[in-house]
User: Fold this.
Amino acid sequence: MSSKMKVIITGSTGMIGKGVLLECLDDSKIQEVLIVNRSSLGMEHPKLKEVLLKDFMEPSSIQDHLKGYDAVFFCLGISAGGMKEEDYKKITYDYTLNFAKVYQKMNPEGSFFYVSGTGTDSSEKGRMMWARVKGKTENDLLKMGFKNALMFRPGMIRPKRGIKSRTKSYQRIYNIINPFWGFFEWIMGDNLTNTTTIGQAMINGLVNGTDNVHLENKDINLLARA
Assistant:
């Protein structure tokens, strides 16, 4: 595999996506980054390109922009709190699978890395709505035959590099525990990850590969150090 990779990132306005983006821009192994958002990130960098996609149900409208990229780092997501299953499934499953199909059509040898979450239900039959939907999303992505498909399942995440969560309830929690991250890192060890480490793990997963397709916090941290 070429040491200079070109990647697409969705969800770069969010906490994880922004962390992944910053690592890709800093890493010499990544030659070019295309970010796909509904609204502009308003960021400039020599390696960075941006295309706007107003409706993620219709990624075919930008398919020509997606050609020639080695991987998608799909970080777009939303909290399930207060959402009906139909609405949550549209954003979590339909957006993801539609994008994956169009990307694969334009890049048959491409890879697809998906940000899911710890507790995702691979059986698709559990009580937790969000976990079932995430499980179906993961399962159907893994059936698509990508060259490399990895399902990232972060649990507790420390935002680094000044990144904030767009989910207000999460950010309130981060504001409270900010002074205590050192203590949490000491107590939790590899059960805690951060936005920088997730980005590094995605890059290493693309360049070096990994046999583990479901990556919890410990696996993410291990892959980042590989």
